[in-house]
Amino acid sequence: MTQLSYDTASARSAADDAAEHVDPARLTDAIDALATIGARSDGGVDRPALSALDFSARRGLIERAQALGCTVSTDACANLFFRRAGNEDLPPVMTGSHIDTQPTGGRLDGAYGVLAGFECLAALADANIRTRRPLEVAIWTNEEGSRFQPGAMGSSTFVDPSRLEGFRTVSDAAGVTFGATLDAHRSAFPTLATRAPGAVHAFIELHIEQGPLLEMAGTPLGVVTGIQGVRWHSIRCTGAAAHAGTTPMAVRRDAMTLAVRVRGAIEAFALELGGDAARITFGSWHIEPNSINTIPSAVTFTVDFRHPEPAVLARFDAALAECIAQHGADVHLEPLFEHPPVHFADSAISRVRAACDALGVRSQPIVSGAFHDALHLAKQCATAMIFVPSRDGISHNPLEATDDEHLVLGTRALAHCLVELCNEAP
Amino acid sequence: MTQLSYDTASARSAADDAAEHVDPARLTDAIDALATIGARSDGGVDRPALSALDFSARRGLIERAQALGCTVSTDACANLFFRRAGNEDLPPVMTGSHIDTQPTGGRLDGAYGVLAGFECLAALADANIRTRRPLEVAIWTNEEGSRFQPGAMGSSTFVDPSRLEGFRTVSDAAGVTFGATLDAHRSAFPTLATRAPGAVHAFIELHIEQGPLLEMAGTPLGVVTGIQGVRWHSIRCTGAAAHAGTTPMAVRRDAMTLAVRVRGAIEAFALELGGDAARITFGSWHIEPNSINTIPSAVTFTVDFRHPEPAVLARFDAALAECIAQHGADVHLEPLFEHPPVHFADSAISRVRAACDALGVRSQPIVSGAFHDALHLAKQCATAMIFVPSRDGISHNPLEATDDEHLVLGTRALAHCLVELCNEAP
């Protein structure tokens, strides 16, 4: 048997070759085709997780992968895995993202990462490249969290299968459980092999930035070094309903007046503590009784604070607790969710940066402001991400767009990086 | 035929007699009974205008009035009129109020005035009092404006029937038109006579103060001299939806940040212009898309400004226009409603004050902070109101309450006043 060689020189060459074989038209055609499934009249896409539309999209991708000679498998959370064999029985390198969307979503969020993964499979086939390790493209189930909460059910279950039992009982707005849709998925694709969880060598997710930083800097590629940490809270301010016309200002207990003051205080210390990297958002508001001529009796609003530094998040927690305490019984805090900042593996980050350099494309380090499936994979294997610019920084919106040139560059960097990782020694 | 006499001495005596025949237990029992229709678990009442609950309440009152020998009629706006005949064919004296409530309303707002009117009908019957003029108790439709906007549709249509056509097309939150509910009311009560609009001699509305002034002064009865003027506006602030995690603070266009700033500016000049008599409320808010991790793209909120002085209202209008103009295209103002201050008829005010004096009860002049059906009746006939104290000044709230002693005093004053007015010469 011939001893295959994966030394530095030949590996670099194969990676360059893979990047060169990325076909711009095939990539954008695939994006256009997927965007027709769940297309909105405004140019956006509405393709709920595990809906009939999602099933239809999956069916097309399964057929495409099989035509490329890949094996297709699924798991207990309806994640799909499209595997290109390696020469050795080693843990695979993975890429991929999700194909579910926000209700008023765009055509690139998630879909781009999956279809770029498929383009890499095709490019490797065209270039007749053999890799030491298998390469898998994954579709992670229900990343958006729009149909079933929380999001990233698929990738988080892949990393921690014990989560599945709890997720199965979650219902969508129509009362359909996540478990029922998983069973329907299994029935819809009866011939797929079942993939057991197992070691993964590395995971690289390619995604649109969903923010304006790359575009503002004029940089085509972002080397994502991690995902900022987040705190979600609900704050309830209590006052007393009273008649708008009859109640003197001095005796009012207006819950909205209180809420606006608390919001201002939180915003001020969030920006002071977090500086330019802070993101503070008060996105959801519920006012009671919400009547034009009644003083608000209660206002509940949400706080979304994000920052890449654990120390800043901790100082925010302390300042928030102090702020709430200062307001006594009229202000109540309910923590909803939190996640620490994630720093991706230096080895994977280096591979992404080297891929950009090998292509001669300018890149910059960037911290992801949004959650991604990579957040969970990072717990299991060397993980990093590649970002391409979002036009006007817009995402979760039918206007979401990225220049074709950038879509292609991102895919070339992904192909380069994946081949390098696939040829890494055990 | 015996010539009936309504000279000063006998009229005063009949009025005293009517006041004495007010039955405290019957009054409070009637209030308790009506409060069971639409009762909330927190002790409040939720009885939307022309809902099934409202129909049920009306049915009970129609039966009670018929048992008292009254004739019952309705009009094109589903107002109900319970008429006790007079000895002469003269324009009637009217009292009454409304029985629809706020969604988190109390048991007295409106209901007290209607049921005190019924108590007067019963007291006059018990005392076997005949009056020169007919006495009518009215239930005015949709006073609160909670289900259909604007409020006081019934009383304003009674005074100006041309308003009805526009009101009929107004929809509630479920999409049901006001016109459809009027038709349903007509079908539900097919045997009621139709009352044509016509001259009214005087209108006296008894109501809870809905504010703290009488209680703070320790005065049992308020002689209401008028109603302060009001401006209602809707303000829409526009921003841009964007991802809470990925969008730097400096490039955000957060519609809630803008709305909070505009709210603060309006509050500041309202209080500066209006002083202690100013009432400024921002009661209703609608945030889009109202999602925890999306920056608000649009916020619509209401402004309710009230003041007794026309000059202050005019200065507020000018300051508001200037404030909106300063914010450019992102802030849009829609006027919803306005009403100038109303001064009630001196003749009717005198009758109310005389009734308090005749009972030996301390009273004080007071300007109403709230709208009432009397606002509209004042355009048609000599109108005034009687206020009783609201405990802790609370109204539009399940905790709304008035001491029984005050409820009875108010009803005695009403009975006295109505008999005096009913015996006035043409």
UniProtKB/TrEMBL annotation, chains A, B:
Residues 226-329 form the Peptidase M20 dimerisation domain. InterPro entries: Amidase_Cbmase, Bact_exopeptidase_dim_dom, Peptidase_M20, Peptidase_M20_dimer. SUPFAM superfamilies: Bacterial exopeptidase dimerisation domain, Zn-dependent exopeptidases. Belongs to the peptidase M20 family. This is M20 family metallo-hydrolase. Keywords: Hydrolase. It holds the Pfam family Peptidase_M20.
